[in-house]
Amino acid sequence: MGASSSRQPVASPCWVHVQFREAVVRAHGHRDAPAAVEHSFVSTWMRVHDDELLFGVDDEVFERWAVGVVETVHWTLERPARPAAYTVEEKRQAHPRAYERWTAEEDAQLRVESGQGLEIDDICRRHARNDGAIRSRLHKLGLTTEEPRPSGATARRVEAVT
Question: What is the pTM of this model?
């Protein structure tokens, strides 16, 4: 695959069901979940960047997988028969603003907090968003040279295996 392709958007959030060529380890929160041969989640777009499939909502990347481990990707408006790894409602129990669009005011506050050298955990609490959302937004705003971490330990482990 190579460089980057444009986003392939869909009209509204859809369920995405990914089947892998072999069992991969996927992170769930801060602990690793058992290896799985499939995974379901909500997304509005997909694109290929280098050797990864990226999935996201609005302008945020929420899932990424090495192209070589993905067998099939299926999009559907209906929730798959197998339950997804999580729902937006479940994510919002821990992070009330999960999957919400970023506002200009919130971006401005993030710039201030980053300039003050606040820890990521403190910024997460202030914005009611998870670590990945904060790191991705910092990177998007050019406030860090650190690449956002892949979706939990999964993508790092997948990259090491492939």
Answer: 0.45
